[in-house]
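Deviation from plan, reported transparently: 6R9 complex.
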Amino acid sequence: MSAERQGDAFENLLHEERRFPPSEEFAANAVAQPSLYDEAREQGTEFWARQARELLTWEKDFTQTLDWSDAPFAKWFVGGTVNAAYNALDRHVEAGLGDRVAIHFEGEPGDTRTITYAELTREVKQAANAFESLGVRKGDRVAVYLPMIPEAVVTMLACARIGAVHSVVFGGFSADALRSRIDDAEAKLVVTSDGTYRRGKPSALKPAVDGALEKEGHTVTSVVVVRRNNEPVEWTEGRDVWWHDAVAHASEEHTAVAHDAEHPLFILYTSGTTGKPKGILHTTGGYLTQTAFTHKNTFDLRPETDVFWCTADIGWVTGHSYVAYAPLVNGATQLMYEGTPDTPHQGRWWELIEKYKVSILYTAPTAIRTFMKWGRDIPKKYDLSSIRVLGSVGEPINPEAWMWYREVIGGGKAPVVDTWWQTETGAHMIAPMPGVTAAKPGSAQVAVPGIAVDVVDEMGESVPNGSGGYLVIREPWPAMLRGIWGDPQRFKDTYWSRFDAMYFAGDGAKKDDDGDIWLLGRVDDVMNISGHRLSTTEIESALVSHPSVAEAAVVGASDETTGQAVVAFVILRGSAKDDDDIVTTLRNHVGKEIGPIAKPRNILVVPELPKTRSGKIMRRLLKDVAEGREVGDATTLSDPTIMQQIAASLRK
Ligand code: 6R9
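Because the crystal trials were delayed, the predicted structure below was used instead.
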């Protein structure tokens, strides 16, 4: 869909009249004051140099803030050396904060662990020693396939400590998806667990790792396995080692060597418009600076007293930036929860907030809409008065959900900060500052201080207030991706070729009459399901890989709960039978190929697909069908009667 068309659909949002300025008290004491914007404007990149020195402890100071001579490949904080794990851990212990709780962990079955900074530091040092004794060296890649348990954070920080590059693969992805990511990054080590708990039952992870490594030709030499749910697992002697053998017995002494500011920190795969996922590469100094800066300012962080809870899984970028890194770099206390929001009951999250006195909650609109569906009576049963700030991320938050969030969870007074950013941007890029910005329900509003975002038209010209177009970023930023792993050309083509000297985000956006930014969703073929990015092509490839399917087209249709839902149109092979079974079979097939999150909500069997003369599937027409609208202009189809044929077949 073009940005213009999307803009029309969201026209009503621009007439949002409600404003929620911060209370006087909040504004007066806020971490981020209006002067932050002035400083950022006046100081240019030096603003970031100041933040880098203030927020991080450098072993060697940098000599140049930004080297953009090889654009779009940026180098930030040139000449500086820094260790991410030292910044997240050791320095807090050295400063006498060793007894502060770093992580309150709550398992789905209700088991708990309280881990102080001193304890977390010790465990990360042990893990670093264990990984090194398994042959992991600086620059090696480590695949992480773990549930939301503390060992996930320990593993990521242990890699960072050594200078090994972690590649976290979401635990919901299949063995095949894991294997392709292991192969692309040529990972040496995999860290996993026997499994986790899901909806009150043990759920396995290790079998997917075994499946991924079944076929020869991979680069993995060891698999470290955390015991979590005590389910029996298959064991490959010589390759598999238990975490409690390898890590718990390792030495507690480990010196963090500082790495170059541009040393790779991690790779995180995300969906692109083609089937092959992109390995987004982040490096150390700039990433840590901007994640720490935004965590502190967007959320008005008080590390001494706040309890921060970001509900994202570490398999997504939000779980990297705002679980594994920023909260620890800022010395905060955070909650980590393993399970689902409705186990054992639909009030679990609110019970946790009451129990741990969570003061900052950061979650996704899809979760908020689910809670709305369950009803406000459930959260009303709990004491949520500890909540000070509410964050939203992952997709546009509709004004109804925004209002509900503020009223029901935030007691009608906690500021809601809607944060726009991407795997590629590493950290918040557009977000109100809770003590400065008068909030508007549904809008992410303004660029983070020091960040240059704009909305432009087809020609790359900045659009006036009241108009829509494409979201771009005009200046390099510290946490920007440094490339796509192993594919510099794709990096240039995907982000830097649509407009001259601007980063193309792939999102449509509008500026309202005040110049505030409203995000309108993706303009490419990437879908956003419950805040998770999936590419249409990836799911189409999975469908077509089934012997019954001749052709497939996938669209993201708007869905009240998940934002978008996967709707698939398939043409069956002559021999296949069109019945209920085939739909179930294909849904499960996609689940197996990619992961349960990618299972289509609907699969519609059709006789033909709408294609242009050049053979490109016109997904916007299918989207009209999927969303129950009258079908738009179909004149460029090679066969303009196709849409009637499809409609007729669906009425059958
Ligand atoms: C952090 C994250 C990125 C895509 C992005 C956009 C959508 C994220 C949003 C939002 C509207 C927000 N998105 N936050 N849209 N308002 N506050 O989600 O990263 O998984 O890479 O997804 O998500 O479409 O382009 P990632």
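The longest helix spans residues 117-133. We consider this an acceptable substitute for the interim report.
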